[in-house]
Write a structure and sequence with these properties.
globular; single chain; mainly alpha; Growth Hormone, Chain: A
Length: 476
C-alpha cells in the first residue's frame, strides 16, 4: 500500500481547522489551499525519492550479500584444496565477525557522520581488497577477515538508512523485504559459490585466458573469487545511486577514542530499555546461532549425507529459503508493537536444531530445513524492526545498529570460536548441533521469562514504549 495514500506523509500538511479560529476560516481558505498544495507536493516528491532510494538500497544489498555468501563457500574450498586442517574452515565464521566486535564503537559513528550511500560504497571497496588479497596468495583466513572489515562498516549504514527513510509503521514491512531479499541472496549466494567451485563452471572460468597476462589463477576457488570481485563492483556502483535522505550527519569527534565512552553509554541505554533489551537479547542469540549454523549445516551434510562442498551448499540455501518465506510472512502479518509475541518460536527453533541429528535422508532434510528457516525468519524480522525503532529513538540509527552488531557478532565470535575449538579437539558435527539446539532453546526460554518479569514489574513503562511504537508522529 502506498505510504502517501495511507496518510503517513500527510500529517505534516497544513490543516486550516487545526488553528481553532473558525471565525476567520473563510478568509484563509485560499491561502490554506495553496499551503496544503505546496506541502503535499513537497511531501509527494520526498516520497517518490524515498521509494526510489529504498529499491536502490535493496538492490545494492542483494549483490553485496550475494557475493559475501558465495565468497564464504569459495574460501572454504580454497582452504580445503590447500590441505588446511578442518578447524581453519570453521574459523572463517568467527574471523569474519572479528571487526564487527573490535570496531563496533567506531563504525556506527562513522555511518552517522557521512551519507550512508557513501559509507556502503567504501565498505564494498574494502571487500574488493579482501578478495584481491586471496588472489595474491595471502592466507584465506586473513583475507576473509578483511572482507569482514568491509561488512562491519556496511551494516550500520544498511540498516540505519531505513530509519532515516521510513516511519515506524513501515519498519517491519521494510525489514521484511530487505531481510527477505538478503536471505534470497544467501540462497543464491551459497548456490553460486558451490557452482563456481564445481567442475562445470570452474572449468569454463579457468579456460579463460588473457593474451600476454599471467593471472596466476589456477584453482577453481581462485577463479570463483575473481568472478565475485565483479559482483562486489556492481554492488558498489549501486551504492553511488542511493539518494540523500536529508538527515543531518553527526560529525565524529577529532579523537576517535572519545567514541568509546559514548558507545558504552549507548550499549547500556539499549540494554536498560524495557523493550530494547528483549529485542536485543533475542536477535543477539538468533544471529549468534544462525551465523554459525551456516557452517554447521555444511559440516552436517558432509557427515550425515556424504555431500561435497558443492552439494552441501544447496542445503544452506534450503534453510535460507525457509527464512525468506518466514521473513516475508512476518512483514505482512506483524506490527511493531506485536514483536515480542514471536519469542516462543525461538524455543521451537532450538528443538528443531536438535532433531537434525536424527535425519539422514535428503528428502526429509529439505522440508525440515525449510521449516527451521521459516521459524527463524518469522522470529527475527519483527524483533529486528523493534530493536531498530528503539535504538533510533534512544541514540540514532548508526550508533544503534553498531551496538546491535557488537552484541550479535560477539555472540557469533564466541560461539564460532567454541565450535572451531571443539572441531580441533575432535567433536563431531552431531555433538555441535545438539549443543547449539540446547543453547538456543534454553536462552530463548530465559528471555521470555525476562519479558514476563518486565510485564509484572514495569507495566506502565512497557505500555508507554509500545504506544511510541504504534505512533509514527512520536518516532525519533
Amino acid at each position: 500500500m502506498s505510504l502517501w495514500r495511507t496518510g503517513v506523509f500527510r500529517v505534516a500538511c497544513y490543516n486550516p481547522a487545526s488553528s481553532g479560529d473558525t471565525r476567520q476560516l473563510s478568509h484563509k481558505t485560499a491561502g490554506a489551499a495553496r499551503s496544503a498544495s505546496l506541502c503535499e507536493g513537497a511531501l509527494a516528491h520526498k516520497f517518490i525519492a524515498m521509494k526510489r532510494g529504498f529499491y536502490t538500497i535493496m538492490t545494492a544489498q542483494f549483490f553485496s550479500s550475494l557475493a559475501d555468501n558465495a565468497l564464504f563457500v569459495a574460501a572454504i574450498e580454497l582452504l580445503r584444496t590447500r590441505g588446511a586442517p578442518e578447524w581453519q574452515s570453521a574459523a572463517l565464521v568467527p574471523l569474519f565477525a572479528l571487526f564487527y566486535v573490535v570496531l563496533a564503537p567506531f563504525v556506527g559513528a562513522f555511518a552517522d557522520a557521512k551519507p550512508k550511500g557513501q559509507v556502503m560504497f567504501i565498505s564494498n571497496a574494502i571487500k574488493l581488497v579482501g578478495c584481491l588479497m586471496m588472489l595474491v596468495g595471502i592466507h584465506p583466513l586473513l583475507a576473509y577477515t578483511m572482507v569482514g572489515l568491509g561488512a562491519a562498516a556496511y551494516s550500520p549504514a544498511k540498516y540505519g538508512i531505513l530509519t532515516e527513510l521510513l516511519p515506524p509503521s513501515q519498519l517491519v514491512k521494510a525489514n521484511g523485504w530487505i531481510e527477505g531479499l538478503t536471505i534470497a541472496s544467501i540462497i543464491l549466494g551459497v548456490l553460486l559459490g558451490g557452482q563456481l567451485v564445481g567442475p562445470l563452471l570452474s572449468g569454463w572460468l579457468l579456460a579463460i585466458d588473457l593474451p600476454g597476462v599471467d593471472t596466476g589463477i589456477n584453482r577453481p576457488a581462485e577463479a570463483a573469487v575473481a568472478m565475485l570481485m565483479l559482483v562486489y563492483a556492481l554492488a558498489a556502483w549501486y551504492n553511488t545511486r542511493i539518494p540523500l535522505t536529508g538527515v543531518t550527519p553527526r560529525p565524529m569527534p577529532a579523537n576517535p577514542l572519545a567514541l568509546l565512552p559514548d558507545f558504552w553509554r549507548c550499549n547500556n541505554r539499549l540494554w536498560s530499555d524495557r523493550l530494547g533489551q528483549i529485542s536485543l537479547a533475542t536477535t543477539t542469540l538468533f544471529w549468534g546461532v544462525s551465523g554459525n549454523l551456516r557452517y554447521i549445516v555444511l559440516a552436517w551434510a558432509g557427515a550425515a549425507l556424504g555431500y561435497s562442498t558443492t552439494q552441501a551448499s544447496s542445503l544452506v540455501g534450503v534453510v535460507a529459503l525457509g527464512t525468506a518465506v518466514g521473513a516475508v510472512v512476518a512483514s505482512m502479518r506483524m506490527r511493531l508493537d506485536q514483536a515480542t509475541r514471536v519469542m516462543p518460536l525461538g524455543i521451537g527453533m532450538g528443538a528443531l536444531v536438535i532433531l537434525m541429528n536424527f535425519i539422514d535422508n535428503v528428502w526429509v532434510a529439505a522440508p525440515f530445513l525449510v521449516l527451521l528457516g521459516g521459524l527463524g525468519g518469522f522470529l527475527v524480522v519483527p524483533m529486528n524492526a523493534l530493536l531498530q525503532h528503539r535504538g533510533h529513538n534512544l541514540m540514532g540509527a548508526g550508533r544503534s545498529i553498531a551496538v546491535q552488531n557488537f552484541n550479535e557478532q560477539a555472540c557469533i565470535l564466541i560461539l564460532g570460536a567454541l565450535y572451531a575449538s571443539s572441531t580441533a579437539v575432535g567433536w563431531s558435527a552431531f555433538a555441535a548441533i545438539t549443543a547449539f539446539g540446547v543453547l538456543v532453546a534454553g536462552f530463548m526460554a530465559l528471555i521470555a521469562l525476562w519479558h514476563r518479569y518486565n510485564h509484572r514489574h514495569h507495566p506502565h513503562e512497557l505500555e508507554r514504549l509500545l504506544e511510541i511504537a504504534r505512533r509514527d508522529d512520536l518516532h525519533g
